[in-house]
Amino acid sequence: MKKFKQLGSRLVNSKHMLWGVAFASFMESLIVPIPLETILIPLMQARRKLLWAISAMALLGCIIGAALGYAIGYFVFGLIGEQMIALLSTPEQFESIRQQIHLHGFWYVLSVGVTPIPFQIAMLAAGATGYAFLLYMLATIVSRGLRYFGLGLLVCLFGNQAQNLFEEHKIGASVFIIVLIGLIWSVLLFS
Q1: Rounded to whole angstroms, how far apart are CA atoms 70 and 63?
Q2: Which stretches of 26-124 are assigned E, i.e. beta strand?
Q3: Nearest to 73 by CA among 106, 108, 97
Q4: How many other CB atoms sit within 10 Å of the CB of residue 189?
Q5: Residue 117 pLDDT > 80, yes or no?
Q6: Does 7 have pLDDT greater than 60?
Q7: Residue 152 and residue 188: Cα distance in Å, rounded?
Q8: Which of 157, 144, 158 is nearest to 29 (CA)?
Q9: Among candidates 105, 36, 117, 34, which has minimal Cα distance to 70?
Q10: pLDDT, tens only, 97-116
Q11: Which of 23, 39, 66, 151 suits a disulfide with 8, CB 3.0-4.6 Å?
């Protein structure tokens, strides 16, 4: 976590800051199970004029990582899947996630994408189950777009207090968003 924060402080003044954000987001979505918020919020606070560009580049990096994660799940899961499961979760957790994607694909990916839960296992499961790539990418774009642009809005509205507000309310906000997604899903399912 400390190294991730140091990366954020180096990014603030870099002329390649926006591409650095995209790369950090790519790495966070694909490999590093540390929430990107630890560098995004301070970076957004320090570079407020680029607030929405930072959000967009974080989304771009995540989209690329999500597509690659899906491809790994789809094409090479049979070869390295057990090792990846051991690295990211347990076989029981993975099987549960695979069943959730099979039953509730779009909504499951959407709900995982807006929470600070590591997204890697959902990517692999979506690819391994052959879940529809376009629906998977749509859920990824919507969920991570809400997450990154929501952070931008938080910094825009609350400035230097954004980090503290995020830390205080991230669990409650995640629960609220999941409940909201569940309600929308229920309305659409039963109407």
Answers
A1: 10
A2: none
A3: 97
A4: 9
A5: no
A6: no
A7: 29
A8: 144
A9: 105
A10: 788 888 888 888 888 887 76
A11: 39
> Would you state the pLDDT for residue 98?
80
Q: Which residues contact 180 (CB under 8 A, 6 or more apart)?
A: none
Please tell me the distance from the alpha carbon of residue 41 to that of residue 26, in angstroms, as a whole number.
Answer: 17
**Higher-pLDDT residue of 178, 24:** 24
CB 35 within 8 A of CB 163: no
**C-beta separation of 119 from 29 below 8 A:** yes
Task: With cut-offs at 50, 70 and 90, classify the pLDDT of residue 185.
Answer: low
Put residue 96 in one of left, alpha, beta given phi > 0 → left and psi -120 to 50 → alpha: alpha
For residues 67 and 60, give the distance between their C-alpha atoms in angstroms, rounded to a whole number.
11
Cβ burial, residue 49 (10 Å; 0-12/13-18/19+): exposed
Whole-model pTM: value is 0.79
Residues 6+ apart with CB under 8 A from 5: 38, 39, 42
Contact between 173 and 150 under an 8 Å Cβ cutoff? The reply is no
Which residue has tokens 């954020």? 8
The residue ranges of every structural domain in the chain are 2-190
Amino acid at 126: A
DSSP 47: T
pLDDT in tens, 65-104: 999 999 988 998 878 777 777 776 777 877 887 888 888 8
